[in-house]
Amino acid sequence: MSLLSGGRALENASSAWxxxxxxxxxxxxxxxxxxxxxxxxxxxGASDWEVRPGFTGGLGxxxxxxxxxxxxxxxxxxxxxxxxxxLRVGSRPLIDWVIFSACRAGxxxxxxxxxxxxxxxxxxxxxxxxxxxxxxxxxxxEEWEKENGLSVFKxxxxxxxxxxxxxxxxxxxxxxxxxxxxxALRDDEMVLAADFRVRDNPLIDxxxxxxxxxxxxxxxxxxxxxxxxxxxxxxxxxCSKAIFSALEQSQKNGDFSLSGGVKVLAAAGKAGIMxxxxxxxxxxxxxxxLKKAEALVETxx
Length: 301
Prior knowledge:
This protein is an alpha+beta fold. The protein has one domain (about 1-5, about 35-300): Spore Coat Polysaccharide Biosynthesis Protein SpsA, Chain A, CATH 3.90.550. About 25% of the residues lie in helices and about 30% in strands. Strands 1, 6, 9, 10, 11, 13, 14, 15, 16 and 17 form a ten-stranded mixed β-sheet that branches. The chain has a two-stranded antiparallel ribbon with strand order 2-3. A hairpin with a 2-residue loop joins β2 and β3. α3 (about 150-155) packs across α5 (about 240-250) and α3 packs across α6 (about 260-265). The longest helix is centred in the middle third of the chain and has 14 residues, at about 120-130. The two termini are about 35 Å apart.
């Protein structure tokens, strides 16, 4: 386990994030003045915002980490880059856009699980950390060919009690992260940022996206092949340590996917959702998605 950290002190700022640009990523402290909780919206199966001062959850930028899963090979894009996290998307490598979004949401500590081409990915992350004001803790998954839930499980000692979980190939609007960071979370729960735009969504590959059935603000079913669904899994979660116990249980049954762990929590009524509304995200999984992602990030600068 290696700790990579930048050298500059984080500047105080009264605004949500500073426009100061430092080579790759903006310096972007975020102050969260209140905590919000999600409550069921029965007619949509999604969630409404409700201000609950003092409710457990909504951790600030100094204590909330972002766990990024970057262990896979990315076979469908293997000809474009030596490692999928290093695939060029517009002006930056793919994993940089993930870090960029989390940084703009106020996160300054990252845990990245590497696997395939780990040396190259970690070298790139080391370069970023030298330039920017955040830390990156790298954890290697030598069994990276197994499903992604194992990579999440490998980070159980480094993630913290509550953390953001993100995929290294999912680019999301930073505003989704900002909202997710403010969702109330109990010690035995997780919350998925869910996209309810299931019809005519131009950024979605319907054959590959993970589908979700939501009822009363809770995940009831999740998987790529389920027939009944009303939302898509964005690959972005707010987690408690309960996810690791759930993953351990699912792996004992031979399911090493992240969705396997989510199913365990969902069965106990502990997997909630946050509706992302009209904000955009994309899973960069093939050349067609890459082209769409390049058009999306062009608007971000």
